[in-house]
Each structure stands twice: as C-alpha cells, then as structure tokens.
Amino acid sequence: MISAERFAQKTVFSLEVFPPKPDADIHTIYQTIDELSEVEPDFISVTYGAAGGKNGCRTIQIASDIQSQYGIESVAHLPCIGLTRQQAETILKDLESHGIRNILALRGDIPVGVAALGDFAHASDLIHFIRERYDCHIIGACYPEVHPESASAVDDIRHLREKTDAGCEHLISQLFLDNADFYRFRDRAELAGIHVPIEAGIMPVTNRKQIERMVQLCGIRLPEKFIRMLDRYADDPQALRDAGIAYAISQITDLIAHGVDGIHLYTMNQPETAKRIYDAVKSLIQIKQHVPV
Length: 293
Ligand code: FAD
Prior knowledge:
This protein is α/β, with parallel strands linked by helices. It is about 45% helix and about 15% strand. The chain has one domain: TIM Barrel (Alpha-Beta Barrel), CATH 3.20.20. The protein is built from eleven helices and eight strands. It is globular. The structure holds flavin-adenine dinucleotide (FAD).
C-alpha cells in the first residue's frame, strides 16, 4: 500500500497506463510494462472506462499483474458514475481478492445520452463508501485549471476538501502545461486546509492530434510558448516529439525545484517517451528538498 512516508523520502515518480481495448490483445500491455519497469516507478496506475466501459476487468487484471509479476505497486482507477452501491461493493471485493490496496476514486465523465447515473453523484461519495468498507490507500483527482463543470475556483477547492475530509489521502492532478497554474492551485489547496501530497500530472505531448483531443476533452489551456512549439514543428513529427519531451522535462525540472510532492506521467502507453523523460530527471527525484510553499 502506498504510504505517506514515501513522499517524505523523495519526489514520487509514478506512471499511468491504459488497458488495451476489449477486442485487442491484452498481452500488448505487458510489453509496455516490461519497458516501463526500467523506469523503477513508485507505482503504476491503470485507467478504467467509466459508465459501462468494458475494460474494468482488464484494469483489475493488469493492476494485479503489475504487483505480482513486476513487484511494482499498482493503483486501480475506479470511476463511480453509473455504478450502484452493489456493483461498487462487488468491484471492491474483486480488488481485494486481487490484492490491490490503492484506488484512484473518481466520478468519471458523464457520457452523453446516459440517463441513469447510478448511486454516486460525486467522487467524494465513492470515497466515503470505500473508506467505510475497505482498508486501502485512496487517491483523488484534482484540477490545477479548475474542473470544467465547476462554477468557480472556490467551489472547486471546496469540493476537493470534501474528498480529503472523506478519506482521500493523496491527489493526482489533471495535466497542465503552465506550471504557474499548478502553483496557484497548490496555494488554494493549502489555504483550504488540504494537506495531503499532490502529484503533478504531466503529459508529454508528442503529436498534434493528441493535444487537440485533450483540449477538447479537458479544456486545458495552451500557453503561448507551447503554441509556438506546436506551430514551429507542426510538419515534422520527429521534431515535435523531441520538442514535446523537452517541454515535459522542463516542466518537471521546474516542479521539482518548487518542491512538488510527486510527478505522475501520463505515458499514453509509450514507454520510449517515459524512459527518455525519466533518464533526464532521475537524479533530481532522488533528493527530497524542503521548499517552503
Ligand atoms: P468529482 O470530484 O466528483 O468532481 C466533478 C465535478 O463535480 C467538479 O466540478 C466538482 O467541483 C463538482 N463537485 C464535486 N462534489 C460536488 C458536490 N458535492 N456538489 C456539487 N458539485 C460537486 N475518468 C475515467 O473515466 N477513467 C479514468 O480512469 C480516469 N482517470 C483519471 C485520472 C486523473 C488523474 C484525472 C485527473 C482524471 C481522470 N479521469 C478518469 C477523468 C475524471 O473522471 C473526470 O475529470 C471527471 O469529470 C471528474 O472526476 P472527479 O473524480 O474529479 O469528480
């Protein structure tokens, strides 16, 4: 189980993978994890399709194998939208029987056209539910640029505090491309009495389509220097990839200098990219410096 001590010793470095689609060969993910294990991550988290997504079993299987076959701590994402309490109970039992003791408790995105949303309205409801039933490390999501459905930054942080009050012990942020957004968010969290470790979510942008999709899905802001980079290398995929990796490395270097608790890399199942980034920052993450916020 992930413990608070880990954050006291070093800058935590964790990775996210997603399961192959239900009709794709599950073994491809193990080639990816083989390579990712060279990065020696503190943990690997495995996403879970919300609201009837069919890869939930794969999430649990892969998270279980990461621990048993690779000896790496794993985290199963668990979105609650569309779940009944009984279904959530069944999933928790399944997680328990597979020895998975770290859960990223999420609401999930509300899919278009879904009428019945199940028994959980917010991630904090799921966190309460898990806390009452299962001894595990609970993680929650947070949004440096404010969740797109939130009326204001104040509302957003108030609801985040509800998650930590409910028993969430650690937060992982949505990706962001301007570190100033993360630092402002961290200040708001501190003022709101949120004192759990906050990992910064970093996505190395290696192609234009990927970032356009993220802007559409998550409403993230593209800083001027990032747009310049996209425009300059738009016609050269290799150069754009190199520039995207360099951008992520510079974000991480600055975050570590500002005393970030952890870096959570959205790997997009691209181990080569993750390895290049890790090689560039591995000496930085070993030292835990206290930087006053
Ligand atoms: P919540 O914390 O419930 O917040 C959602 C909105 O509701 C926010 O605007 C919040 O301010 C508001 N809110 C919260 N509580 C209340 C309340 N009591 N009253 C009124 N408003 C309230 N999605 C997946 O489907 N699968 C995944 O594997 C997955 N992994 C993710 C990993 C990370 C690190 C992140 C950042 C996101 C991930 N998502 C995933 C996406 C996530 O499910 C969506 O961003 C979703 O829209 C919000 O989820 P949440 O858990 O933050 O929801």
